[in-house]
Amino acid sequence: MVLKQPFLEAIIAYCRQGILPLHTPGHKQGAGIAAGFKDAFERWGLQLDIDPPVLPSGESWVAPTALLTAAQAMAADLFGAAETFFLTNGTSAGIQAMFLAAGKQGKVVLPRQVHTSVISALIISDCTPIFVKPRGTSSDLPDSRLDPDELRFVLSATDGIRAVFTQNPSYYGFAADLRPIAQIAHEYQVPLLVDEAHGPHFSFSADLPQAALQAGADLVAQSTHKLLTSLTGSSMLHVSRAYRHLDLGRCVDLVQSTSPSFLLLASLEAAVFQLAEVGEQLVEQVLSLATAFRERVKDLPGITILGDEEIQAWGYPDYDRTKLVLDFSGLGLTGLEAAAILRQEYQIQTEMADFRRVLAVLGPGDTEEGIIRLEQALRLMAAKYYQGRKLPDPPALPGFSELAMTPREAFFAAAAEVPLAQAAGMVAAEIIAPYPPGIPVVIPGEIITREQIQYLEELAAYGFNIAGTTGGVPRRLRVVI
pTM above 0.85? Predict the structure, then answer.
């Protein structure tokens, strides 16, 4: 009997197809990874996958801190932190650690439209969320900005707030101005925590949005693998000098494996040394590719690449120009349809798609040949599909719902599954999120609304994947009983 290995086979099949990877991680299947790490991996392969007991000098089983001291110190210097921690459980571990350290089981002010990992951090840390309404001017795009005036009001009117949290930039690369948010948080003597998963490269170019630490943030988690060159699952957590006293290392240990992947740690170390040597050059190369591509496709009929005009209309002061947000509605194609065409007909895999748009992510492993290939595909699509078909307006994101319990209370409460159609008015006991971008429609503790149910049904009609289900819309929801 031959045992099939569908997961491994799917990865191998992807590699064999010669697909252009316009998605994370930033090293793009090794093309942009640090030379020293690449040489070692090609020479030693799986022999590099070792476990802590083999380390010299009596190193810790939990984390090889002595060996990583120089690299973590260099990372702190490069990113403007007082201290930096390497993570092998992704940025989610960094978010969990910052909530554990700074939240201290108290209240945290944050926007409702945050990544699902943030809701998980609330559950793990036992923090009470004080959600603020989004500022959004685009009805179908999640918005994780904090309004300075509203933040000041909440901080002045609410006792027991331990921290302020926000997510910046968005998955699409749209960036808020964090400086007034940091200033207000510090006026009330609480730290500003930032999920900067999609902005680890901001520190290396003045042509990108200001990095969170430079804007005054105190704890910042970054996905080094997404837009820089470490391996998937490797991230960093930075802390400012003002909040170094939090002893963040203890909380990091709680959310990290006691058998960390040495490959991930070595790739972080290699990425740091690469950034120290040529970081600005690497990011400038990516920006040059993005600028050239934007110029090439700016006049394509039916396809719009989001730029200054659209970003300013939505009220964002800046955006990441290395993220190519392509709107296909002028061709009468949804983003999901356009992404499928790019993959099936042109062997180009993008990062994500929504109702109207496709997101292509450039990183240090991308080349001029790649952007020319994407341009050619878009020209062929414009010629084939530009027929004046109109798309209906995308469904608007559901409005602000009420929390009846904290996410942790609801997650651990007695619960049962009920049909989706009957869930309105009940308290959710699970996270339901379209993924990507992973912004929950429903979170534990929230009173489920008919608007949320209708939105989930509309997502299913468009063909979105919804995390927590086996595909399509969940037919049943887990609710508190």
Answer: yes
